[in-house]
């Protein structure tokens, strides 16, 4: 009995020590790689005392890692920049539904979060058409569909088809048009490419500016970052291009999001929820808006003025998880069409 008691006390002390160490930290499995985010985490640590540990990786690696680590995974919060990957993590059962009065009070639009709270959007970005001001009139392109028309032969620039941004766009086309028409669109787009896909979105914008192509597909924040860049050459590139928000006369422009979900096996669920709440707070949302030129998901926070200048637009209202469900078909049809 006495020994039992000692053992019990010893166990309690151990458990308490372990708890108090863990209670002061939160581990992020992060595939959102923007230096400006560091400021957000540092501010969170300063105000809460909770240390933020960041484990970097790409989306799929991190999902794979959580799956193989199982219950022993140190992951507390999964952060990524593609709705498809958030939906995939939720589908794998890796994320825990989370809600709180504070999260609810933010009023994140329904299409930018999981209906059950398994993931929450942090910021959104529109996938737009960037055009050469001196060679293209903005009214020449109204919809994504137009990019596949023969008038744009050898004039279209895009990054790789295997990149999540391209996959999500094609998945959204499948959602809107059905698989058959979406495949025709992909084929037409590939036939119109000015060069084989290479580089990131910034490279496509630069290629428009130097005349390698006339229109490019890119996320809004890349344009915003060039407009506000400290480098003169970036600002010059930005001055040569304009932005078209496609599909304004119908379903709206495709938006993707960066978002976060609390990991089901997290040992620091409360800290993870607190961090999530902080990421949706006006203060952190201001950082997403100004640091990386994204659209805040918190409706109380305005985008950066330079982004506002690009114009207001109607975003497609479809829930990210619903177009993300078409990702496997998107990959198949893009592969068949040769969007490498
Ligand atoms: Fe990006």
From TrEMBL:
SUPFAM superfamilies per UniProt: Periplasmic binding protein-like II (SSF53850)
Keyword line: Iron, Metal-binding, Signal
Molecular function per GO: metal ion binding
Domain of life: Bacteria
Signal sequence residues: 1-23
Pfam families (alphabetical): SBP_bac_6
InterPro entries: Ferric-bd
GO cellular component: outer membrane-bounded periplasmic space
Binding positions for Fe cation per the UniProt entry: 33, 221-222
Family to which this protein belongs: Belongs to the bacterial solute-binding protein 1 family.
Protein name as it appears in the record: Fe(3+) ABC transporter substrate-binding protein
